[in-house]
Structures are given as structure tokens and as C-alpha cells.
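EI: anyone free to look at a 129-residue chain?
SC: sure, send it
EI:
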Amino acid sequence: MQEYTETYTNPDNEQANSDSKQSNPDSKQAEKQRKLRDSVVRNFLDKEGRLTSIPAQLKKKLIILEHLAEKLEPERVYEEAEINAFIRLYHEDYATIRREFIVQGFMARENERYIRTPRTAARRWEELS
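SC: here you go
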């Protein structure tokens, strides 16, 4: 349910209000994305923060992967056992989530060593329709 707030617009300031409304779509889009992200995280994680299931829909899966990857230290090299233990904190199917981290660009792997990639390297859920 949306909250209604009445505001007073000063007629002398009409041009400034018009200009600010034109730049507002970006903030509305960002707010919409934040609400979607929060909703997906809330729906797929239990009260203890564990993943209840791996989302089938790509956009939701990317949101969850991003949420989990953000908990890893950037640029730190992790051994495979460390990544498996980390993922097991959130879900038992560590192999699937580890593979998705790699496939979707949240992590890179070389010789059973893993590193969290910069956010720009990962597939962006915000770009999906």
C-alpha cells in the first residue's frame, strides 16, 4: 500500500520543480531495483540468513549470488575448501552455487583457487528485463 503525502508547490519555483522531475526517473528506477532486490533476498533467505532454495529465474538467481558474493573479501584468494565452507553457511549445494559464481562472473577460478571479481565483471541483474 502506497503512502500519500500532500506537498505544497510554490508557483515561483515551478521551473525548478519541472527540472527536478525530469531527472527523477533514475532515482525511481534505483528505488524500484532496491525494492526488488530486498524482496528477493527476503523471499529466498530464512530468518537465519540461509538460502531456502536456489532461484530458477535468472534475475532472482543473480540477485542472490550478488548478495552472497558481497560477503566475500574482494581480491582475496580462497582455496576451494574455504569457498565450499563459506557456501555451506548458506546452502548445502555448494557445488552448484560455486559453479554459478564462476559462470555468472562473481568469481574467477584457477588451479582450485578462487577470487571474487570486481562487481563490474559479474553479470548484472539490473540489465535484465
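EI: The first helix runs from residue 14 to 44.
SC: 👍
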